[in-house]
Amino acid sequence: QVQLVESGGGLVQPGGSLRLSCAASGSSFTNYVMAWYRQAPGKERELVATITRGGTTNYADSVKGRFTISRDSAKNTLFLQMNSLQPEDTAVYYCYARRFQISWGQGTQVTVSS
Hints:
Layout: E1 3-7, E2 10-12, E3 18-25, E4 33-39, E5 46-51, E6 57-59, E7 67-72, E8 77-82, E9 91-98, E10 102-104, E11 108-112
Parallel strand pairs: 2-11
Antiparallel strand pairs: 1-3, 3-8, 4-5, 4-9, 5-6, 7-8, 9-10, 9-11
């Protein structure tokens, strides 16, 4: 079982940037598929980006070209670099990990507002 803790959220102006981190404990996530999800108020949770153990990445169309998912296996940390943020990106962002079981973080709030 892997435990996930997100950090790095906050308030940012449109066009700004944030980097989210997800620290994992309990086991190495070298062999895990990792992802970021987000959920805006009143909406369902949606997939933002994924990264496989081989480093293959995929992105939702809404964030492609603006967000970058990466991981540092040595530090057991997952990242989401978010650039050119827009109000529509406002949501709680959740870290996700799966190998044989699924783990979720508690979420970190990202608010994009002028």
